[in-house]
TrEMBL record:
Keywords in alphabetical order: Signal
Protein name according to UniProt: Lipoprotein
Keyword check for Signal: yes
Signal peptide positions on this chain: 1-21
Length: 83
């Protein structure tokens, strides 16, 4: 008798066993939810984002004032030299 014919009666039992395992796994007790974390206010998140975006702008404005002051001093030196 070939081996394939001997395995045929086991196939329905195997399928039934897999289905039974799936049903038992689906019926397990649900796990309790994790402890809830307090929600961080969105205004704080937006404030941090706004500060992070505004810092380079403020730095550029400060540098612009220094550049303008240097340009004025150079222009004054050129005017004083008779240029």
């Amino acid at each position: 008798m070939p081996r394939a014919l001997a395995a045929v009666p086991l196939m329905p039992m195997l399928v039934a066993g897999v289905l039974l395992a799936c049903v038992l796994a689906a019926c397990s007790k649900p796990q309790p939810p994790e402890k809830e974390r307090p929600v961080e206010p969105q205004a704080m998140q937006h404030a941090q984002l706004r500060e992070a975006m505004q810092a380079p702008v403020d730095k550029a404005k400060a540098a612009e004032a220094d550049v303008q002051q240097a340009a004025d001093a150079q222009r004054a030196a050129i005017d004083a030299a008779g240029g």
